[in-house]
């Protein structure tokens, strides 16, 4: 039987204080096709384990400086997938069995037959092959899970967190990170890091040498460096840096950022296989990050468009200047108190800015001194319909239509335009209704002065369950009180 073709699955470290045993095992195992190194005791073995990657350690139980059990303890703590075989004399069989309970793969009794050792080694390598295949299967499943997570969101923050969580879970290192290129400045200054649980806080104090990393990534090649070589990629390296891995994040043939991983755990070294895995993870993350950034740009344009509509409306009527902003604020406070998800709160914020956009289609002089005529009032009641008609041709504004169209419905069904009742009214519209009414009551109009805050609150409470959704009123009261207390402490003017 021959060892695996994968060089990382055929490397053995023989540890024994007797030179003749080290040499015999090294010679015979080399003839079997294994790459064999030797060490006279546990301490020397650890030095080798920290500089090269092995698949199996064959160690004597009793040695000067550091014995086999101490070496096993180190291996179990720092290199859990490394197989350990303990060699012992007849007098310490019980100790060898105890070592197996502590994680040793097998034990060899001295004096031994070389053929028995070779058999144990081949059997161990078969197990190591299965371990590696299981690891690869987990990696494939992890990639599939990451792909699903990345497809489920267009939030840049969520994309980066998903990618880094997957990377940390698969590499089992101390820290991972992403550094993105700022599109406006061209600087690599948008950084996110994630550390394994229990990792030293000093890891977060490490500072990358971005210029050195970029220079080493010629032709978008990944970086795999150990110990002193790894330190060149930090302006301020973390204490005890053992291994560093970095790959370019490329989207549409452009470098958009860098994904990094590093470890300060003694004996932990990234492998070529882990570099390949990180390249695959990185390519998927890069595409998702690029999509999220494009979406963010569209959202910004969307927000600017909405603000432009609102300003056009306010320019027609100086009495309503700031009304949309205040309604948006009050609706946002209420939605937060109702524990609505961030996406829904953002929708309410946008709808708040746009809720009266339909008044652009009203010909009535809404803010004239004195009461509106019946004809003028009927025309004003059409502004939710006009708002819907304005938004309808613009596809990306469609999610705002239910809140804009129904924000004058009443809980008891006596509102307009459709006379919906109770929970048949979209939740966003019910929230806007309360926020809109409060701001209308506490703001000056051409035909009346603003009501005091307390009077407006009494009016909302009196009409909860008839005009307004009782829950929306109750949550509004909590939110507005929280806002007023904070504003007073900061000296921000509020309705009296």
Describe the structure.
The chain is an alpha/beta fold. The chain has 3 domains: 7-133, Rossmann fold (3-Layer(aba) Sandwich); 155-293, GAF domain (Beta-Lactamase, 2-Layer Sandwich), CATH 3.30.450; 317-490, Hypothetical protein af1432 (Orthogonal Bundle). Helices cover 50% and strands 14% of the residues. It is built from 17 helices and 12 strands. The protein has helices at 19-31, 42-49, 68-78, 93-101, 114-151, 156-171, 210-216, 227-231, 272-316, 323-337, 342-354, 374-380, 383-391, 401-406, 427-441, 453-463, 470-490; strands at residues 11-15, 35-39, 56-60, 83-88, 106-109, 175-181, 188-195, 207-208, 223-226, 234-236, 243-251, 254-263. The protein has a 5-stranded parallel beta sheet with strand order 2-1-3-4-5, sandwiched between helices. Strands 7-6-12-11-9 form a 5-stranded antiparallel beta sheet, sandwiched between helices. Strand 1 (11-15), helix 1 and strand 2 form a beta-alpha-beta unit. Helix 5 (114-151) runs antiparallel to helix 6 and helix 5 (114-151) packs parallel to helix 9 (272-316). The longest helix has 45 residues, at 272-316. The chain is elongated and about 110 Å long. The protein starts with 10 loop residues before the first strand and ends in a 6-residue tail after the last helix. The model is unreliable at 1-9 (pLDDT under 50).
């Amino acid at each position: 039987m021959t060892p695996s073709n994968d060089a990382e699955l055929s490397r053995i470290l023989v540890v024994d204080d007797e030179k003749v045993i080290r040499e015999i095992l090294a010679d015979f195992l080399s003839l079997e096709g294994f790459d064999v190194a030797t060490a006279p005791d546990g301490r020397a073995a650890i030095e080798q384990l920290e500089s090269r990657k092995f698949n199996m350690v064959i160690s004597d139980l009793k040695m000067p400086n550091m014995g086999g059990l101490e070496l096993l303890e180190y291996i179990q703590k720092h290199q859990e997938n490394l197989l350990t075989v303990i060699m012992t004399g007849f007098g310490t069989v019980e100790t060898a069995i105890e070592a197996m309970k502590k994680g040793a793969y097998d034990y060899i009794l001295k004096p031994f037959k070389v053929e028995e050792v070779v058999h144990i080694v081949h059997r161990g390598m078969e197990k190591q092959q299965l371990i590696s295949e299981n690891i690869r299967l987990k990696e494939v499943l992890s990639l599939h899970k990451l792909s699903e997570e990345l497809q489920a969101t267009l939030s840049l923050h969520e994309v980066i967190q998903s990618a880094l969580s997957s990377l940390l879970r698969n590499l089992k290192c101390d820290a991972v990170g992403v550094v993105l290129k700022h599109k406006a400045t061209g600087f690599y200054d948008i950084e996110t890091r994630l550390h394994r649980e229990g990792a030293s806080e000093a890891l977060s104090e490490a500072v990358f040498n971005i210029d050195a990393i970029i220079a080493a990534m010629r032709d978008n090649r990944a970086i795999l460096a150990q110990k002193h070589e790894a330190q060149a990629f930090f302006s301020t390296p973390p204490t005890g840096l053992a291994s560093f891995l970095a790959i370019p994040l490329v989207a549409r043939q452009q470098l958009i950022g860098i994904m990094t991983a590093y470890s300060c755990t003694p004996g932990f070294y990234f492998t070529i296989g882990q570099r390949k895995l990180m390249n695959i993870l990185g390519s998927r993350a890069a595409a998702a990050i690029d999509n999220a950034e494009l979406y963010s740009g569209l959202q910004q344009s969307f927000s600017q468009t909405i603000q432009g509509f609102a300003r056009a409306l306010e320019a027609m009527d100086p009495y309503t200047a700031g009304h949309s902003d205040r309604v948006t604020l009050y609706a946002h406070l209420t939605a937060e108190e109702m524990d609505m998800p961030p996406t829904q709160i953002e929708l309410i914020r946008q709808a708040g800015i746009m809720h009266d956009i339909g008044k652009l289609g009203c010909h009535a002089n809404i803010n004239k001194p004195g009461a509106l005529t019946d004809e003028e009032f009927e025309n004003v009641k059409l502004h939710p319909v006009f708002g819907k008609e304005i938004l309808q041709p613009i596809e990306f504004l469609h999610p705002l239509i239910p809140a804009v169209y129904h924000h004058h419905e009443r809980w008891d069904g006596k509102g307009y335009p459709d006379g919906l009742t109770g929970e048949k009214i979209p939740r966003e519209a019910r929230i806007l209704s309360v926020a809109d009414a409060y701001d209308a009551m506490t703001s000056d109009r051409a035909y009346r002065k603003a009501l005091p805050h307390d009077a407006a609150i009494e009016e909302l409470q009196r009409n909860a369950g008839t005009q307004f959704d009782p829950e929306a009123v109750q949550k509004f009261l909590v939110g507005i009180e929280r806002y007023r207390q904070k504003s007073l402490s900061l000296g921000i003017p509020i309705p009296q």
